[in-house]
Structures are given as structure tokens and as C-alpha cells.
Amino acid sequence: MTDIFDVIADGTRRDILQLLLRRTSEGETGTSVSQIVADLGISQPTVSKHLKVLRDAELVTVREDGQRRFYSLSVEPLEVVDDWLVPFLVDAFGDAAPDIAYPGAPLPDGAAHAAEVVGRAAASAKHVVTTALKRLGA
User: Fold this and answer.
1) CA 57 to CA 89: how far, in whole Å?
2) Minimal CA–CA distance to 115: which of 61, 73, 84, 85?
3) Could you tell me the pTM of the whole model?
4) Secondary structure (DSSP) of 84-116
5) Complete DSSP assignment for 28-85
6) How remote is the C-alpha of 133 from its chain's centroid?
């Protein structure tokens, strides 16, 4: 499997992921390649190339409807990034981590569930790191 960090290191792929996240939060059940092309202003071959990388990394799912394909965000692979990142945030902010306000519509059920899973993983990682630091006397 491709290293998730290599996949999300590309700005165009991050733009596609953000677009899919936004459209999911707006209640869309999938986004076509032509919609991605129009929203991001990049060529269809470029979008297709990046979507293939995102599919291979399992960051997007595809639903076929005739000759059209509709892409949706799949957040599970991002848990690896979350697991890696949380210790740095805990180290940087400790219990004084700022609250982040997300000005958006309520999340659809699938996205809300994914956010809950990520939140629980982050809380668990924070607990593990905090406990380890206490044992080390730090």
C-alpha cells in the first residue's frame, strides 16, 4: 500500500479531498469527475490521475452510474495520519489545546460517525501519551 503521507503530500490531491469533504458536508452522495474539474479548474486527465492515486490509497470510494463515476471521501486511512499527529499536538498544547470552530452544516451520518471514530482515536492516543509521560516523570 502507498504511504498515506506521500499521497496527501500533493496539494492537488489535498484540494480534491477537501472538495469531497465539503460536498459530503453539503449532503452530496458523490461527486463526478466533471464536477471536480469545474470546481478546481484543473484538467480532466489530471483529476483522473489524482483520483487513481486516492483510490489506490483507499481515501476515496467510487460509485458507477452508467458511464459516470461518482467519488466520495473515505476517512478511515487518515487515522494513520491522526495517530502520528496527535502526539505532536499533545506535546505542543497539552491540555491547553485550542478549540477549533468549524463553521459548517451538521455532518451527514457517515461523516459524523467517521468524526466520532477519529475523535475517540485521538482521545485514546492522548491518554496513552499522557500516561507514558507521567510514568517517565515528565
Assistant:
1) 25
2) 73
3) 0.65
4) HHHHHHHHHHGGGPPP----SPPPPHHHHHHHH
5) -S-EEHHHHHHHHT--HHHHHHHHHHHHHTTSEEEEEETTEEEEEE--GGGHHHHHHH
6) 28
Q: 7 and 54 in contact (C-beta within 8 Å)?
A: yes
All cell numbers assigned to 136: 517517565
Calpha distance 60→92 (Å, rounded)? 31
Query: Given strand 60-65, what is the order of strands in its sheet?
Result: 31-32, 68-73, 60-65
- Give the H or E element holding residue 117: helix 109-135
Chain centroid, CA 76 distance in Å: 8
* pLDDT on residue 100: 56
Q: What is residue 137's DSSP assignment?
A: T
Look up residue 3 and give its DSSP letter. -
Q: For residue range 86-125, what is the model confidence (pLDDT) as tens digits? A: 777 766 666 666 565 555 556 677 777 777 777 777 777 7
**Residue with the three cell numbers 475523535:** 119
Query: Do residues 100 and 92 touch, judged by C-beta distance below 8 A?
Result: no
